[in-house]
Amino acid sequence: MHVPPIPTLTAADPQIADLIERESQRQHDKLRMIASENYVSAAVLEATGTVLTNKYSEGYAGKRYYEGQQLIDPIETLAIERAKALFGVEHANVQPYSGSPANLAIYLAFLEPGDTVMGMALPMGGHLTHGWSVSATGKWFRSVRYNVSRETGLIDFDEVRDLARRERPKVIFCGGTAIPRTIDFPAFAEIAREVGAVLAADIAHIAGLIAGGAHPSPVGHADVISTTTHKTLRGPRGAMLMCTAEHAKAIDKAVFPGLQGGPHNHTTAGIAVALREASTPEFGAYAHQIVANARALAAALIERGFDLISGGTDNHLILADLSSKGIGGKPAAQALDRAGMELNYNTVPYDTRKPFDPSGIRLGTAALTTRGLTEQHMPQVAAWMDDAVSAARKEDEAALERIAGEVRDLLAAFPSPGWAATA
Ligand SMILES: *Cc1c(COP(=O)(O)O)cnc(C)c1O
User: Fold this and answer.
1) What is the Å distance from ligand 1's center to 127 Cα?
2) Ligand 1: residues within 6 Å at CB?
3) How is residue 2 annotated by DSSP?
4) How far, in Å, are 22, 77, 195, 201 from residue 174 at the CA level?
5) Which domain holds residue 204?
6) Ligand 1 center to residue 121 CA distance, Å?
7) Alpha helix (H) ranges present in 113-264?
8) Which residue's CA is the nearest one to ligand 1's atom 8?
9) What residue owns the CA closest to ligand 1's atom 3?
């Protein structure tokens, strides 16, 4: 049963309610390893399902374009103050609708169309919005890209520095969506300072690790920090921009009125709740457990012959090249899903296959750590993954079904925020 319960919706719209109920069950039964996903608390779910969705509040606290902000202003202010305290930043904007619009606001704040932006190439682990060709950021701006080393899978800072000196980008993005290793913010900052670029740290994936002290912080190194709120940070779908006081005005103006209209106040409340949760000692322990689980899972996968990009992980994320397993990333991901393990197929650096049918899979431990799994469970997870990949190669559907049942049996002992057995 969905938590919080949805009896009114069930009466009013049984079709949608049924699909939601089944999704909460699915999220309970599956080993969710999509690196960008998590389970939010029931408190966050409640906040996002409130009457705050009814309210328009274009502008910022104390400077709104609509009346009736007596309670919205303190909600947004609480979210901002909590973000500032948690990350130790001078300024926070909690209004971006999601990570991609947050990044677009950075372009609007610091670049003119046609100006040069530098980011990690998408196939190397960067994000679309860091200047990739199919994104508006690659179409409307001149983008140049850095890679990872073919040998080590790590960023080569000599290459980054040479590229920055040659191309003189106005903004440099660091961070990405498929980076299994610690991001060296000081190294990026030194290069950005040398070429006079604004350094934007996109911590969407690792914000929760940073908040919990399990990854170094970009604060004091990056000029602006962009993050989603729904990945390791474990809040509702949304985003934040954080910066020094120097850039506060430019960032705020870029978000509103530059890009957006009214903020999503129900999301803002959910972000505030999540930020409060993330400031507790329990969340610090959670963040460190995510990394411990990822390290244990990586070690167990390597033992089973999986080829991990960069040879392992420092954070929540693992990127595996399945070429050595004799299967493509897509058929593997689809088979793993049927075996009760949810992850995504992913391009690996220097992939010889096409983006829609790449060589790799990407997985993360944020969600399974929320469920309460620890290092001791990771050898079993690796064994299931290995067995499922073998079964996929042999088209052994019965084996995939058996594994899905075993996964379900294990997870039955671990509570799933958002779902409870019917009383
Ligand atoms: C997820 C992600 C984004 C985009 O977030 P959306 O909310 O999906 O728009 C941006 N940057 C990075 C590095 C991400 O991982």
Assistant:
1) 7
2) 36, 98-100, 103, 127, 129, 175-177, 202, 204-205, 228
3) B
4) 38, 28, 15, 5
5) 47-278
6) 14
7) 136-139, 157-167, 185-195, 207-211, 248-253
8) 99
9) 99
Banded model confidence at residue 423, pLDDT cuts 50, 70, 90: low
405 shares a domain with 264: no
**Which pair of tokens denotes residue 262?**
């009214």
237 CA: nearest ligand 1 atom: 7
Active site residues: 56, 58, 202, 228, 231, 237
Per the structure, the count of domains in the chain is 2
pLDDT, tens digit, for every residue of 131-185?
999 999 999 999 999 999 999 999 999 999 999 999 999 999 999 999 999 999 9
Domain contains 3? no
- Do residues 209 and 184 share a domain? yes
Residue 26 lies inside a defined structural domain of this protein: no
Q: 122 lies in a domain?
A: yes
Domain endpoint, select from 278, 300, 329:
278
For tokens 């000599």, the residue is 158
Mutating to test ligand 1, I would choose from 36, 106, 124, 127 the residue with most ligand atoms within 8 A of its C-beta, which is 127
CATH of the domain at 251: 3.40.640.10
Nearest to 125 by CA among 328, 385, 336, 317: 317
Q: Whose CA is nearest to atom 6 of ligand 1?
A: 99
The verdict on 116 and 151 lying in the same domain is: yes
Cα dihedral sign, 209-212-217-222: positive
Which atom of ligand 1 is found nearest the CA of 36? 1
For residue range 17-53, list pLDDT tens digits in order. 999 999 999 999 999 999 999 999 999 999 999 999 9
**CA end-to-end span of the chain, whole Å?**
9
Residues 103 and 137 sit within 8 Å (Cβ to Cβ): yes
pLDDT digits (tens, 9 = 90+) for 338-382: 999 999 999 999 999 998 999 999 999 999 999 999 999 999 999
317 and 353 co-located in one domain: yes
Mean pLDDT score, 116-122: 97
130 located within any domain: yes
Atom of ligand 1 nearest to the CA of 175: 13
Q: Whose CA is closest to atom 15 on ligand 1?
A: 177
Q: How many Å lie between the centroid of ligand 1 and the Cα of residue 228? A: 6
CA of 227 to the centre of ligand 1 (A): 8
Instruction: Look up residue 393 and give its amino acid.
Output: R
